[in-house]
Amino acid sequence: MATTHTGGTAARHRTHHTAPDLHATGVLILLAGAFLPIMDFFITNVALPSIDTSLHASPSSLQLVIAGYGVAYAALLVLGGRLGDRYGRHRLFLVALVGFVLASLACGLAPGVGVLITARIVQGATAALLVPQVLATFHHALDGERKARALALYGATSGIAAVVGQLVGGLLVGADIAGTSWRPIFLVNVPIGLVVLLVAARIVPATRSEHPVGIDLPGTVLFAATLVALLVPLTEGHALGWPWWVWLLLAVAVVLGAATYGVEKRAERRGEVPLLPPSLLRLPSMSRGLAMVLAFSIGFGAFMFVFALTVQNGLHADALHGGLAILPMALLFFAGSVLAPRLISRFGRAAMAAGAVVQLAGLAWLVAVLVTSRPQAGLWAMAAPLALAGAGQSMLFAGLFRSVLADVPAHLGGIGSGVLITLQQSGLALGVATLGTLYLALAPHGIPHAFAAVEYAQMGIVAALAIGTAALPRFTRAADVPVIEG
Predict the structure, then answer these.
(1) How many other CB atoms are there within 10 angstroms of residue 58's CB atom?
(2) What separation in angstroms does the CA of 19 have from each of 16, 24, 149, 154, 209?
(3) How far is the C-alpha of 170 from the C-alpha of 133, rounded, in Å?
(4) CATH topology of domain 13-483
(5) Within 10 A of 335 (CB to CB), how many other CB atoms are there?
(6) What is the pLDDT of residue 486?
(7) Mean model confidence pLDDT for the chain
(8) What is the pLDDT of residue 43?
(9) Confidence label for 20 from pLDDT (cuts 50, 70 and 90)
(10) The pTM is what?
(11) If pLDDT is split at 50, 70 and 90, which confidence band does 477 have?
C-alpha cells in the first residue's frame, strides 16, 4: 500500500540499502544481465531476411518478431520495478534471468513464425522483470560518484548492446553453424545467461524496499492495454491495408491512455503509489528527460531496423556483412561512452548538444552516401559517417540517462528506473512500428530513398534534441551529479 515518505523514512531506506556493498564485479555482472535483453531487441534485425526465407514469414510477421518483444518489454517494465521493490531485486533478477534463458531457447527452436512471435513475447516479458532490478540495485546500493558512474555505464551498456546486437547477429547468421541459419542468435543467450546466473547468485547483494508499495493492478492492466492498442495497429496496419479495426484500435488507445492517467491520479490522491505516479512524472528531471529519451529511442530503433534491411536488401550484402556494416558505429559508440561521463561533468549540457550535432552530421553524410553512390556504395564508404553518428549519439545517450533519474528519491528508485526503461523501450518499438512501416511502404519504390525518408525524420528528432538539451539538468563539475535549475 502507498504511504507518504518523509525525509526520515528516506534516510532509513538509504541506510538499509547501502549496507550490502556492491563491488565493481557485481556492477559488471548486473550490466551483463541487462546487456542480453537489450541486445535481443536488435539482434534480430539482420536475421529478418533469413527468418523470412526459413519460416516464410510475412512483412508484418517480421515486424511483430521485433515489436512483439518490445510491447511486452515496455508494458511490464514498471511492474518489474515494483515487484523488485516488494520481493527483493536480487531474487527477481535471478528468477527473471532463468525465464529469459528458457524463452531464448524456445525462440531458437521455434518451428514456425507463430511460435517464434509467442516465444519473443515471453522473452520480452521476462526481460521486463529482469532489467529494472539492475538500475534499482545501483540506485539503492551505491552512493555519490559510484552511483553516477554506474548509471552512466548502464546508459553506455544500453547503446552498445544495440549496435553489438546487430554485429553479433550478422556474425552468427553468416556463420550458419551446423546449418542452423538464424537460430544461434537466440541460443547464444543460454550459455551466457547461465554464467551470469551463477555468478550473480553469489556476489550480487540482496536489496529491497523496507516499505514496498502494493501492486497497482488497474494501472498495470490499463497501461499494458494502451501500449498494445497503440503499437499493434501501427505495426500491422500497412501490411493489412489499414482496415477499419486498425483505426478503431488507435482511437481506443487514446481513450485507454486518458483512463490510465485518470486512474493513476486518483490512486495517488488516495495516498497510494500508483504504477506511474503523476507526481514522480512531474519532477523536473523526469518530465524533461523522459520526453527526450522517448524521442531519441524512436529515431534509434527505426534506424537500426531500416539500416539492417537496407544493407541486405538494397546493397545485396549477406547477413555477415550486414552485421559488420554497423561495426564503425559500435566502436565509436563504445569509445564515446567511455569519455562521455568525464566530458559531460566538465562541459555539462553543451557536451550533449555537441553530441547531437555530431550525430546529425553523421546521419546526413550517410544518407548522401547511400542515395548518391548506390549501387556502388560499399561498407567502407559508410564507415566514416557511421562512426561519426555513433560518437555523437553516445554522448547524447549517456547524458539523457544521467539526467532522468537526477532527482528521483532513493526509495522510489525501482519505480523511477522502470518508468525510464519503459519509455526507452516504448520508443524503440514505436520507431519500428511507425518509421519502420514508412520504410516498408516506400521500399518498393526505391530502397535508398526509403531509407533517406526515415533518416530525414530521425535527423529532425536529433535537431530537436540538440535544442532541447538546454531544458535538462545542468551538471556540476565538483559533485559530478546533475542538479535542477528552476
Answers:
(1) 13
(2) 6, 16, 19, 22, 13
(3) 30
(4) Growth Hormone; Chain: A; (1.20.1250)
(5) 14
(6) 30
(7) 83
(8) 86
(9) low
(10) 0.79
(11) very low
Residues 6+ apart with CB under 8 A from 263: 218, 219, 222, 274
Phi-psi region of 472 (alpha: psi -120 to 50; beta: other; left: phi over 0): beta
Question: Alpha carbon of 306 to those of 33, 322, 450: distances in Å?
Answer: 27, 12, 9
Residues whose CB falls within 8 Å of the CB of residue 83, separated by 6 or more in sequence, listed in order: 92, 129, 215
Distance of CA 381 to the CA centre of its chain: 29
pLDDT at 414: 61
Q: Which three cell numbers stand for residue 468?
A: 532541447
User: Using the 8-state DSSP alphabet, how is residue 483 labeled?
Assistant: E
Cα gap 89→206, rounded to integer Å: 6
- pLDDT one-digit tens code per residue, 258-295: 999 999 999 888 888 787 888 888 887 788 888 899 99
Domains of the chain, residue spans: 13-483
Would you call 474 helix, strand, or coil by DSSP?
A: strand
Cell numbers found for residue 453: 525518408
Give the residue among 14, 18, 65, 16 at the shortest CA–CA distance from 41: 65
For 391, other C-beta atoms within 10 Å of its C-beta total: 24
